[in-house]
Amino acid sequence: MALEEYARKRRFEDTPEPPPKKAKSKRAAKPYFCVQRHDATRLHYDFRLEIDGVLKSWAVPKGPSLDPAVKHFAAHVEDHPIDYGGFEGNIPAGNYGAGSVMLWDRGTFDLLGDVSGNAQIERGDLKFHLDGEKLKGDFALVHMKGRGKGNEWLLIKKRDEFAVPGYDVEEHAYSVISGRTQEEIAQNLPARKEKRKSAGATDRVWKSDRPAAKKAAAPAKKAAPAAAKKKRSSSSAT
Ligand code: MN
To answer: In angstroms, what is the span from residue 206 Cα to ligand 1's centroid?
Structure first.
């Protein structure tokens, strides 16, 4: 039942998104999480946690934050297949969610406490520790009971050593796999060859098929992300 709504909304002959497929239960090591920046009708971030062979998903209009002082609204949406967690690209016009999708962050997570992920979702209080390239530390997703459609949750950063007061998600608006901005993805431009500067990504090795010319020359002086900042209200795709 988990991926039926995902499948119902899409025509897989028309979109590069992966078809529904529940993952085998024997997956190695820690579960996967990702965040996709999705420039659809409205720009939003899709926050996904691997639980029981699917990606449990929340749409977060303002995006995740490392600031414990903010609670960002998160709409619980349909499960997505595990393969979706590696997706970056463009959903063609006329398809569900048409627009560009950036793989904004990815990594693994640990559930906090002894209760299973699905039971924590059931009780409306899901606690986890993220180890992503941008997002790290303890977080909670809390269901706002007795509200509206019943899918209203809040995404909250817990106070710990990874907290960043005043965190601005839009200062980190580039892909963790290609280094591209949303606009570069929308235009199908190739991956950037230089590693982006990012808190938490310091030990990540940027794999390149070309020599990184500037890397050895001036490691301290990195180019500022060009025009990476984009207002939430605008929407270039469809
Ligand atoms: Mn989305």
So the answer is: 27
